[in-house]
Design goal:
Two copies of one chain form a homodimer. By secondary structure, the first copy, chain A, is α/β, with parallel strands linked by helices. The first copy, chain A, has helices at 51-55, 129-141, 158-169, 181-190, 204-211, 226-234, 262-265, 282-294, 311-318, and strands spanning 3-10, 23-30, 37-46, 69-70, 75-82, 92-95, 102-106, 111-112, 149-152, 173-178, 195-198, 216-221, 235-243, 269-272, 302-306, 328-332. Helices cover 25% and strands 27% of the residues of chain A. In chain A, the strands form three sheets. In chain A, strands 3, 5, 6, 7, 8, 15 and 16 form a seven-stranded mixed sheet that branches. In chain A, strands 11-10-9-12-13-14 form a six-stranded parallel sheet, with helices on both faces. In chain A, helix 6 (226-234) links the parallel strand 12 (216-221) and strand 13 (235-243).
Chain lengths: 334, 334
């Protein structure tokens, strides 16, 4: 018997800032799972800034989304019908099937997760690709050492909020920027970040000088643009930059940093990275993250939006300066 | 008895493009060397792009030149009067005393060099700081591996011409840019560079695509500006950039690269460096460079300008697009 599932498809590619006209919500009937397959009902789907790049028809590190197909991405749910003994009904699984309420998949495309250790949504956030991104960037890419001074742009975002916490757990002084008063409060009050500023309030460089008079050792960049330029002015000798995102320029081009030659004078290393190159280190990451989460040292801050139909609007908001989401944005679909 | 020496002093700091009015040539009488000191007559002095930065009154990796004092920098010469038994008359020495015909110094500020292994001027070029810069950048900073594809901006310059040769000695495919027809010919005919272009002739990116259809593994940058932006577009995954100089912006600001986010998609590493951090590796470098020079595998290409009084004009020319100097620029002062 068929099972009805709604999904959101990309139906046109944006020029500049995308709108809801790029997406369509359709309903389809899923077949019964065949031998070796399972039917999964998603509980949460992930909405991430990197998806903006995949909307363009440009070869990048991940291939572009296909037109007239569902938006792919991280999703967690539960097996509700199984034709595969290793994944009985009730098993919680993580997939990359993205923006749909349910799907049928062979078992080998799915990763079993343990819903007793953490809420399922955490496997999209702090215990998933998001947390892994923060951890790889800080330690693998920027070689953060205990006690250093770290600046995080977009500190209240999904990745940024974990960067702040991991750096503080390692005895670092943390500076973070954000784009709303609520985010600034969140970083100050809940994450205990040492110096927080609204990037729209004054010159970023003045804030960096105020918050880190002796300069910055590590810059974790989610934003690019003027904040990257300010960081270049204020790095210490032999500083490291983990280039994770550049959301300031995703919809409209921004000027490049005019002071990249500071990298010579200060002997800086700027290194871009993509978390999927580092998935083999996931067990090492989880060894640190799971106990930290269970002991309350690491907060899985998330914003939950209800209903698959609201995913496009939530996603488009994420790309706008001053958007309201704090931490990881997930859509609850059932 | 006094010994007369002329020297060139910095007498004013430039705003934007410097002119000869920044310099003055004066003559002074040197005292006799005291116990432990020697009187050295310079034979060659070094003229380098990095000196432009020191003309500004801005703290950088080296302190600014002092006003009304001689321009400091690399110089090689011969002891002509000695009050220090370990440095008898006739000893060839390298110093950082810069733009003067002669000087008196304690022995411990000087490095003895062997004029039988190579002409003295080579200790300012291929066997000195210049050669070391090329070697450190390629192997220490950019981790060049045999057989990779390398792009060198400013390939006919002092450092660039050695980068081209070292990369070719390691079986690499080399692309280089230069700013005159003579330099292009030099790179093609004498250094056997695989693909050479005049950076003023068409779009640098088109040249990179033509010369390296599969992309670039290592970019050694002496220039910055549009060539750096073009390189960012054309790097291969996990490519490395050694940021050595940014001469395009030394006199007037240039826009920053608008595509630095390519570093994320392609997982690039950009690393600035200064050769003086790596002086301890000089013996390792010389172990490779001296035999290569003696066997004719490595060419000490230099442009010699005669007369201390011509140092300022030669230096100012070095900073201009399309200047005529090929290889290392040295001034013969005696």
């Amino acid at each position: 018997m068929g099972y009805k599932s709604r999904e959101i498809r990309l139906v046109s590619r944006p020029k500049g800032e995308p709108g809801t006209e790029c997406f369509d919500l359709i309903e389809k009937e899923l077949p019964d799972p065949q031998a070796g397959q399972v039917l999964v009902r998603n509980q949460f789907i992930s909405v991430d800034p990197y998806m903006r790049g995949r909307m363009n028809d440009v070869k990048s590190y991940v291939p572009p989304f296909q037109l007239n197909e569902a938006m792919t991405g991280g999703a967690v749910g539960t097996v509700i019908k199984s034709a595969e003994p290793t994944l009985p009904e009730g098993t919680a699984v993580l997939s990359m099937y993205g923006w749909r309420e349910a799907y049928v998949s062979p078992a080998n495309g799915l990763q079993v997760v343990d819903g007793t250790k953490a809420p399922l949504s955490a496997y999209l956030g702090v215990l998933g690709v998001t947390g892994m991104t923060a951890w790889v960037g800080l330690f693998g890419i920027a070689s953060l050492r205990d006690g250093e001074t770290v600046f995080v742009s977009g500190g209240a975002g999904a990745v940024g909020s974990i960067v702040c916490q991991l750096a503080r757990m390692h005895g670092c002084k943390v500076l973070a920027s954000a784009g709303s008063a609520d985010k600034v409060s969140f970083l100050k009050d809940q994450l205990k970040v040492d110096y927080v500023f609204d990037y729209r309030d004054g010159e970023p460089l003045d804030h960096l000088k105020a918050g880190a008079p002796d300069g910055i050792d590590v810059f974790f960049d989610n934003i690019g643009g003027p904040q990257l330029e300010a960081a270049l002015w204020h790095m210490r000798n032999f500083g490291r930059m983990a280039l994770c995102g550049a959301i300031a320029g995703y919809n409209t081009p921004v000027p490049g940093p005019r002071n990249l030659a500071m990298a010579i004078a200060r002997r800086l290393t700027l290194r871009g990275f993509i978390v999927s190159d580092h998935y083999s280190e996931l067990p090492t990451f989880l060894k640190e993250a799971v106990p930290a989460l269970q002991q309350g040292k690491l907060l899985n801050q998330e914003t939950v939006v209800n209903g698959l139909e609201n995913a496009p609007t939530a996603f488009l908001g994420l790309l706008k300066p001053g958007d309201a989401h704090i931490g990881k944005l997930v859509i609850k679909v059932s």
